[in-house]
Amino acid sequence: MKSNETKVLVLDIDGTLTNSKKQITENTKKSIIHIMEEGHIVMLASGRPTPGMRKYEKELELEKYGGYLLSFNGARIINCRTGDIVFQKTLPPVILPGLYKFADENNCGLMTYLSDNIILGTRSDEYVELEAKINGMPIKEVANLLSFVDFEMNKCLMTAPIEKAPAFEEKLNEMYGDIISVYRSEPFFIEIMPRGVDKASSLNRMLAAVGLKRDNVICCGDGFNDMTMIRYAGIGVAMANAQEKVKQAADFITDSNDEDGIVKVIKKFILNES
User: Fold this and answer.
1) Hey, how many other C-beta atoms are within 10 angstroms of the C-beta on 133?
2) Which of 158, 183, 270 is nearest to 220 (CA)?
3) pLDDT at 186
4) DSSP calls for 29-40
5) Which residue of 33, 81, 159, 177 is 20 to 30 Å from 270, comparing CA positions?
6) What is the rounded CA–CA span in Å between residue 211 and residue 205?
């Protein structure tokens, strides 16, 4: 028996929507398109920059069905049908010199985003290269990041070895926690975000704008940056491959991203199939 109420299915991309090969399986794709044909709404919510989400937007035909992209961990929301920016928030420019000094002194990667490019202001590392590969975006190395950045930034990303990243995250929060948000999306990625912006707060703004209820939202994720929206949702779902803290925050744990875990969520909570 199908629900008569419109559901909003919010999906993290990496480790959630896509399998370990960064692909949407045919079974998952068919299930997502089926519920959109039934009138439900799908939003992709990722720490990725917007260009790094376009491949999956096209694959799921979100423009046709009226889906949304929540990029930069919530610093920008786009209506796929109209192309309009529903919500956007940017970083205060005053923080960039301090971030650059910290990255330089601690041998971290530091990048931001402009159009379809990753702008790199420090030395590259395996995690910087991973970010470029994941998003399919070229790296543009600049000699002087501070003079190059004359544009508004939705986010910066700092990279660090897994064993050092927690301490760097803590230190950056001590330095800037009153004006920006700092948290890890992966053990080696430190997200530098506008204050008060995360997946949950931006999702809340979007729902208010389109007149939808929080109770009808189902949020699925696997990473640290998914915890706010999993706690916020009417039903918060963690993938079986999720970080342990994410599982503890969830109402339901589904199968892994390599086992079509999203299909199980759709059947149980949207199509009401046993």
Assistant:
1) 10
2) 270
3) 86
4) HHHHHHHHHTT-
5) 81
6) 10
Going by the DSSP 8-state scheme, the letter that residue 74 receives in this structure is G
Per-residue confidence (pLDDT) for residue 274, from 0 to 100 = 63
Global pTM value: 0.86
∠ CA 239-243-247, rounded to 5°: 55
Contact 21, 230 (CB under 8 A): no
Give the chain's residues under pLDDT 70: 1-4, 274
Residues 2/38, Cβ–Cβ less than 8 Å:
yes
As given in the structure block, the two tokens for residue 193 are 């975000």
**Token digits for 176?**
């800037």
Quick one: residue 182, left, alpha or beta (phi over 0 = left, psi -120 to 50 = alpha)?
A: beta
Name the amino acid, one letter, at 150. D
CA neighbours closer than 13 Å in the CB half-sphere of residue 68: 28
Of 225, 57, 231, 241, the closest CA to residue 157 belongs to 225
Yes or no: say if 232 and 250 are a contact pair by the CB < 8 Å rule: no
Report the alpha-carbon distance of residue 152 to residue 144 in Å, rounded: 17
Residue 100, token pair as written in the block: 């650059």
Instruction: Report the half-sphere exposure of 46 (CA within 13 A, side-chain side).
Output: 24
What torsion do the CA atoms of 177, 221, 63, 22 make, to the nearest 10 degrees? 110
Side chain identity at residue 192, one-letter code:
I
Nearest to 156 by CA among 102, 217, 105, 106: 102
Burial class from Cβ neighbours inside 10 Å (0-12, 13-18, 19+) for residue 6 reads: middle
- Say how far residue 10 (Cα) sits from the centre of its chain: 10
The pair of structure tokens assigned to 180 is 């920006």
What pLDDT is recorded for position 185?
81
Q: Indicate the DSSP class of residue 226.
A: G
